[in-house]
């Protein structure tokens, strides 16, 4: 391996060779071309899918322009979240302050778009010029009657993970504000699903078939008024634990709502997510319904998967995604189609995630935290991977080196969760790994 | 039911920008710096800036785009980003062994008053032990001044100022193509080679942002203009600079009394007496003729026969296609210089541009459109500081037949059920955006065919019978 960054050596390990625990949760090294973004990005992705809220980015134009309609998070109704609003600060505001501009922007937008609530994201520069965003938000709340929530997500103020926490803090301000709603029996909130390609609707349908009611989805196809009622659910199921686990813990403390970590990727994890919920509600009838559902789904899915497995058996995959929890599910899902994981990493994994990955993977698998193009390209070459699973920024690395690629990031248009998603996943992996185009690139 | 955004009268004023029709300055600077051989850009600011910009560029170029970040933390924000800057440079040198390191600033580093030039000076002083220290270049690109185009031209100007040297006059020319597609850059190079003209193109990212397939991963893609070539810019016979707005947007709304921004070609003219031919992007017959005429004038050579053929065929096709587009109403949007050239082209083929819009901030779009479209210019609404929602609302009221510009207005075309001819930057919803040809006779040919066919297809798709001949 030539010329990696020395300071990053303890963030890379090879299963079977390195015994030390992986270092993670650190700020990225300067000059490393990290695949991570910033605090603002963390907050923005978590709150983005709330479709009837106004999302106003307070700062110069870039932060808003680069996050315009960026996620494949679908809404069944309002589409306000897909518009990109910014105060577009100029030098004048940088020198004299941007509070007045923020106030005016909020008033005219709220008047026109009539959102149910508003989130105001503070970007790097706001933290430096010292605008009192909270005060402006309070004033506009008072004048318009809708909740205007300051999301203090200055980019430099930590990592993407800190942005998640700040977003959860914003959600938490809304949760519990509907004091009249009574949730029906057997009801839960789904945390950490963002309704990419309609995945949330699929999950909600599974739970519905089991007799479980959804109170609030956080934040896929999200609505302000649902969030207000979220405290009335009996259970929180948390996916993408990196972003939402803090909120689940807070809700447990504040409202006594227990939570469980789940994943909806792959057959095993998806089925567990249903069984565990039935177990929680201690209903035999519900468990029976869950079993029937799983049986029915699998009776269709397994034969359909067989043909892909046959083609993909023994192929090798590299995974580099945002959250490590997703990586864990992907390792399992790949196994189901006969594939072996040879590289696995994430932007924001924690020690437990990485330990679990280490336990699950075969000897020789490279495990990496907060990686970059130089390392990733080197790892796929070393391990002879046939497939890369990642996001937009990883895609050209894979293609440039002649590898198949599966987009598992938030921009994707294919549902990959649930049983239907597992089949889509197999199809997509097959379509890329088994394409004849690679013959010209070896 | 999916709900469209509310329909708002286009006269309503918003303080906020809604779906911005521009990007921030460090993006443009990063693209320009990618056009220098062996160069790795570092964005001096938070980690997100580099990652967002990389993602945005990758989605257009479909290429690895490595841009490092100095990863500002809270500490750096309070005490200055010097230490981060030094670490970033060191790590970039260690990983990439670059020939050039380009530092571009952000709103954050500019606001706290970081002096990047001083940091570089310190770095060079303290690291003389490092063998083959790279050359350094910087660009001041706070995103609260101008748009990505201002950042682009600032970087080009800075590279020219940093590297160009004087000396005995040569016969070569400088070409400053502006922010055009990688295919455009290649076409320009073919043209100049066929002409037998020795040239220096600043920048040239035709390869670095549009590579062939690789056997092994290249940390720094091949291609780009070598610093040694940029050094000769000062002795060129002349410069040709595409664009008439360039980085004037960066001047708008300035509080500090900064000096007028100069472009690379402007600097060379003042400093070394290299005559500058400033002209609109060569899109359309008129604009391309102007470019060719300048080349002939500077070099005394004649346009190669092959290109005379291209010109002839283009005009021949104008005759074949003119009826299908005459009087059709178009909205053109994007970067200012792109909008000016595209409007001029559409004007010369009989398409009525009813709105020419940009997020750019020079305030000179209207004046330039009037100048370049003398006959119809008065009837074209030219708007600086427009955003996509304003374009949408205006279009709902004024019913264009066609949108011409980047892929970001697709949602407007979809809502209005009218064609969109995708060109310019970015193209995020199709492959091949980097290969779209705009410039010269052959680029114009491609655009002309697309515009005509878009109108024919629209009629065909909406016809009751679906005819088989035009």
What does this 3D model show about the protein?
The complex is a heterodimer of chains A (442) and B (470). In chain A, 45% of the residues lie in helices and 15% in strands. By secondary structure, chain A is an alpha/beta fold. In chain A, the strands form three sheets. In chain A, strands 1-12-11-10-13-14 form a six-stranded mixed β-sheet, sandwiched between helices. A four-stranded parallel β-sheet of chain A has the order 3-2-4-5, with helices on both faces. Chain A has a four-stranded parallel β-sheet with strand order 7-6-8-9, with helices on both faces. With 470 residues, chain B is α/β, with parallel strands linked by helices. Chain B is built from 17 helices and 14 strands. In chain B, the strands form three sheets. Chain B has a five-stranded parallel β-sheet, sandwiched between helices. In chain B, helix 1 crosses helix 2 (47-61). Classes of the chains: A alpha/beta (442), B alpha/beta (470). At the A-B interface, helix 1, helix 2, strand 3, helix 3 and helix 4 of A face strand 1, helix 2, strand 3, helix 3 and helix 4 of B.
